[in-house]
Amino acid sequence: MTATILPAAPQDIAELRQLYFDVYGHGYPVALGSDPTEMHRLITDPHCHWLTARRTDTGELAGSVVVQTDRGNRVGKLVGLAVHPRHRQHGLAGRLTGAVTADAFATGALDSVHTTVRMVTQAPQRVVARNGYRPLGLLPNAADVSGCETLALFACYAPGVLDRREPVAAVPGALLPLLGAAEESTGISYACGELPRATAEPAAPPSPSGGGAAPGALLAPPAAPHTKTRTPMEVITAPGFVRRRFHERFPDPAGAYSPLRTPNTVLTPPDGEFEIYADLDPAAGSCALVAVQPSASAATAALDSVMAALGRAGADYVETLVPLSDTAGLHAFLSAGFVPSAGYPAMRRIGDRFHDYVVLSRTDRQIDFRTTAVSPLLQPYLSAYLTAWASTYLPHHEVVR
């Protein structure tokens, strides 16, 4: 089969919705495959790259892929890669991935493009890896597609970006297994030592100015809350209000860095001691914590209550993005039971240097790796996650080898 790759057009929306339904059924948790208004917005956005593949002989729609961009932060995300079941085994997924990635970088407006891939088979992992994407980690229970699924994070970089990373001398010991896995899997060096355990004054984030678990199949949810403090939590899910308040609290875009994330929910105790801005997606069963005002440490003691509130709102998986150099932020989330899941080297550009970030995640549902297809590139990350999870949630005598 031969196929022609073309930019998507508004008149394609009905066929695209049918394509995503044929591939995923009713379980696709992304608006670009089901919401005509959102699809029209993305197709007509000059900074979004949406490509389709059609059979050359019949014109039948065979595949689709999108790269959304945050030009202000010079970051893109590849989403919505789908090939109709009738047209698989012809390399079409790889062609679409390569074409949309090349289009995105050709603008000169992006330093990196990342993507998350399902792990029901190894095929999606191989597709992105063959097109220059590097594996960066695992996100267990990150999406509710056909049940609770683990996703893998990959990223591709513009030339020279990884050569201009700002080094970080030392990190909390809990991050060392993840960083070691990254070096083993990708060859990207971190050269970080372990912070002294008695470090009292953690470093600030960049400004524009041990033992391991056996490789079993199941990780049970925490037997008891990692943080004991119970704080009443109010959850406000009013997207327009939340966006306005977020911009009032963080008028400088550099003050809250979370590319391609728009908060739609705010969580706060009744006394207003802190406000947590989040991107909540009940359809996917997930939530990303975008920013905390006045600081992450202000909410540390209440993060268990935050998790409980988000669980009631439909999110079984919660993640946050923290600079690798932000020792205070890392300690705040690590102490609340968040586990280092993925790194993102050279994610943020400040001047002519690039700063590394790390994804910390927490899920209060049992993690089942028995049906997860882990390719050799991702195997080090699975071992690192098991080690970090065990060190967080099991007593020390249960995790020594």
Automatic annotation (TrEMBL):
Domain N-acetyltransferase: 3-159
Pfam families given in the database record: Acetyltransf_1 (PF00583)
Region (Disordered): 198-227
Database matches in PROSITE patterns: GNAT
Domain of life: Bacteria
CDD domains the UniProt entry points to: NAT_SF
InterPro entries reported in the protein's UniProt record: Acyl_CoA_acyltransferase, GNAT_dom
Name recorded for this polypeptide: N-acetyltransferase domain-containing protein
Source organism per UniProt: Streptomyces albospinus
